[in-house]
From TrEMBL:
Species, as recorded: Nocardioides marmoribigeumensis
Alphabetical list of SUPFAM superfamilies matching this protein: Domain of the SRP/SRP receptor G-proteins, P-loop containing nucleoside triphosphate hydrolases
Gene that encodes it: ftsY
Subunit structure: Part of the signal recognition particle protein translocation system, which is composed of SRP and FtsY.
Keyword terms, alphabetized: Cell membrane, Cytoplasm, GTP-binding, Hydrolase, Membrane, Nucleotide-binding, Receptor, Transmembrane, Transmembrane helix
Topology term for the membrane: Peripheral membrane protein
Lineage start: Bacteria, Bacillati, Actinomycetota, Actinomycetes, Propionibacteriales
Domain SRP54-type proteins GTP-binding: 352-365
Name of the protein this chain belongs to: Signal recognition particle receptor FtsY
Record-stated family: Belongs to the GTP-binding SRP family. FtsY subfamily.
Length: 380
């Protein structure tokens, strides 16, 4: 009996131990499963991979591009001088109308001829051309006398001959042999050089020509920004360099860009500081040499401020000794009664005035036309 009780007790203990082991194993298995499931009792579908937070539609990607700037449509070159004729007449009227009044006197004596000479000299025509004109007028009015054409007509003809309508005033701004035309704009700071580059670009754009600008005036910090703005307004690229950098390398880059873009013309603004002739020669000579490794320079336009009179003439002389000037741009003719400089500078350099500046507006630059100029001088 005692033995039976012992067997039963051992069996009970064994059952309890086995049951405990089974429970622990089951718990460990659950724990492991739970661990694999993410520590939750609930059988959940696998969690989706984490995603970038969904941004509101309007902030997706790059910020919306600003609306493309509206490009300006510059005024065509033809007829600009006619539009600006009034300004020319206002500034140069003293000369033209003054001459007309003196020559229309009943009796033209020596004093009158002297007055005529003074008027011409004051308008900066220069001594040589003044004497020439007076001689021709004297002869015609004496020889033709009462039979002569009206004084106004005689004067018009003689002034026109002095301005010389036979000079070739076309700008060389077309591609040649698969390369862009290259225009160097030279002149003393403040004459309106940078502005003229911008205005000329507008003239070319109006003629549907493609253009690249080169801001090789690295001397004046604002010049590059000023030029870039001019270009942007008409969709023209401007190549700029570091402030104080080498003007020749900017000019080189500009022409390289122009070659790549296959444009019609590259216009390069130069610094042209007139500190001394040797320095100027070095700078402009280098710019030209470097540019011509890629394409020939087709125009060297000298910008002169008409209000500076004889000073402008001195500048013209120095520049023409340093580079082969092919054309003159006379700026600020609207603010000067000294339109005679057209004649003087052409005589001095033997190159034509090709463009005239008649105001600060973006389209106030016009191809020079001798007939319209003389007509404006004489008034209607
Ligand atoms: N009235 C008038 N002003 C002009 C004309 N051309 C240029 N100007 C003005 O002259 C000033 C000088 O022009 P810029 O183009 O900055 O002169 P710049 O020769 O390039 O001078 P730097 O950049 O210092 O070399 C500006 O205020 C122009 O608006 C013109 O034909 N008539």
């Amino acid at each position: 009996m005692e033995l039976l009780s012992l067997i039963i007790a051992i069996a009970v203990v064994a059952i309890v131990v086995v049951a405990g082991l089974v429970t622990t194993g089951a718990r460990r298995g659950r724990a492991e499963l739970d661990e694999r499931r993410g520590g939750t009792d609930v059988l959940a579908p696998p969690r989706p991979a984490p995603e970038a937070p969904t941004a509101p539609a309007e902030t997706l990607g790059a910020p919306p591009a600003p609306p493309a700037p509206t490009l300006e449509r510059p005024e065509s070159a033809a007829g600009r001088l006619v539009r600006l004729r009034q300004r020319l007449a206002r500034s140069q009227g003293v000369l033209g109308r003054g001459l007309l009044a003196l020559l229309s006197r009943d009796k033209i004596d020596e004093d009158t001829w002297e007055e005529i000479e003074d008027l011409l000299i004051t308008a900066d025509i220069g001594v040589g051309p003044t004497q020439e004109l007076v001689e021709r007028l004297r002869t015609r009015l004496r020889v033709e006398g009462a039979d002569s054409a009206p004084v106004r007509e005689v004067l018009r003809e003689e002034l026109l001959a002095l301005v010389d309508p036979t000079m070739d005033r076309r700008l060389s701004v077309s591609r040649q042999e698969g390369r862009p035309a290259v225009v160097l704009m030279v002149g003393v700071n403040g004459t309106g050089k940078t502005t003229t580059v911008g205005k000329l670009a507008r003239i070319l754009v109006a003629e549907d020509r493609s253009v690249v600008l080169g801001a090789a005036d690295t001397f004046r910090a604002a010049a590059a920004a000023q030029l870039t703005t001019w270009g942007e307004r008409v969709g023209v690229d401007t190549v700029v360099g570091p402030e104080g950098g080498d003007p020749a390398s900017v000019a080189f880059e500009a022409v390289r860009t122009g070659m790549e873009q296959e444009v019609d013309a590259v216009i390069v603004d130069t610094a042209g500081r007139l500190q001394n002739k040797a320095g100027l020669m070095d700078e402009l000579g280098k710019v030209k040499r470097v540019v011509e490794k890629q394409a020939p320079v087709t125009e060297v336009l000298l910008v002169l401020d008409a209000t500076t009179g004889q000073n402008g003439m001195i500048q013209a002389r120095v520049f023409s000794e340093v580079v082969d000037v092919t054309g003159i741009v006379l700026t600020k003719l609207d603010g000067s009664a000294k339109g005679g400089i057209v004649v003087a500078v052409q005589r001095e350099l033997g190159v034509p005035v090709k463009l005239v500046g008649l105001g600060e507006g973006p389209d106030d630059l016009a191809p020079f036309d001798p007939g319209t100029f003389v007509d404006a001088l004489l008034g209607d």
